[in-house]
Amino acid sequence: MEKILALESTVIAHGLPFPINIDTAVELEELAAETGCSAKTVGIIAGQIKVGLSREEIVQIASRKDVLKIGTAEIPFALAKKMWAATTVSATMRIAHLNNIKVFATGGIGGVHKIDQWDVSQDLAELSRTRMIVVSAGPKSILDLRSTVEMLETFQITVVGYKTDELPAFYCKSTSIHINRVDSFEEIASIFLFKEKFNLPGAVLVFNPIPDEHAIEVEQFEEWYRLSEHDLDASSVKGKGVTPFLLSRLAHYSKGKTVRSNVELLKNNVKVACEILNQLSKMQ
Ligand code: PSU
Ligand code: MN
């Protein structure tokens, strides 16, 4: 089994500020290579699906102003219109799956928004139908976490916490929301192989908490969040623009702390995903 790890491009185009986004994208690929895996960033380049962006394409996707943020539903739209597009968790999963990739590392998954309860990410729909191991540091801290966890359950997504029985929430480690715990890469690979064996659809969603030294205290996060939410209310931003807007306001109020934490949790997820990939290749 070729050990390929999928990475998304929305975090580069719309999640992290320039030029940290470029350095991070490159660093994540290098980290994977150190463990014998090949990380491929997924994106749409002038109407062409690419699995494994070149350095130049990463620079472009990180800096162009005309890069659309797309979920699975908008893949054909971006292709037909020959656009540049950054893939979110849902679109990345679907494209990676079509390319036979089994493991994907991301930062935060989408879910149920606090502000508009009908704003539910396509990530959940895709996680429920596409069989893949997805390593994430939790639902983005800006979401309604309880509703998101309930939706993951409703959609029959196999959720596990890596070395934790508490849902991590992206920048923050603890939420006191219970999830099932696993303690080894072998257990994770084995769960995935059982899903394959019984033809069960949907992801194995591995929640891997941000490392202690980079975690943000809940009270601190909430203070920055309140200010950011206030800015959102005062703006006309809606729908797909909400997440990038809030992430950039949080970066502002935290003086870059949320950006540093975001980068560190991404690195941590890539490391864990590569270990899982190595284990999976041994067991297949
Ligand atoms: N986590 C981050 N930065 C991001 C995202 C997640 O740290 O930019 C992106 C992911 O690509 C995720 C998407 O799939 O946000 C969800 O967006 P929405 O809530 O609009 O579905
Ligand atoms: Mn949305």
Number of strands: 10
Bound molecules: pseudouridine-5'-monophosphate, manganese (II) ion
Which fold does the CATH topology refer to?
Indigoidine synthase fold
Topology pattern, helix = H, strand = E: EHHEEHEHEHEHEHEEHEHHH
Structural class: alpha/beta
Helix content: 40-55%
| Mean pLDDT over the residues | 96
Low-confidence stretches: none
Q: Could you tell me how far the N terminus lies from the C terminus, measured between alpha carbons in angstroms? A: 8 Å
Shape: globular
Number of domains: 1
Q: What is the name of the CATH architecture? A: 3-Layer(aba) Sandwich
Task: Give the name of the CATH superfamily.
Answer: Indigoidine synthase domain
- CATH class label: Alpha Beta
The number of helical elements comes to 11
Percent of residues in beta strands?
A: 5-15%
> Major sheet: size, sense and barrel closure?
10 strands, mixed
Radius of gyration: 17 Å
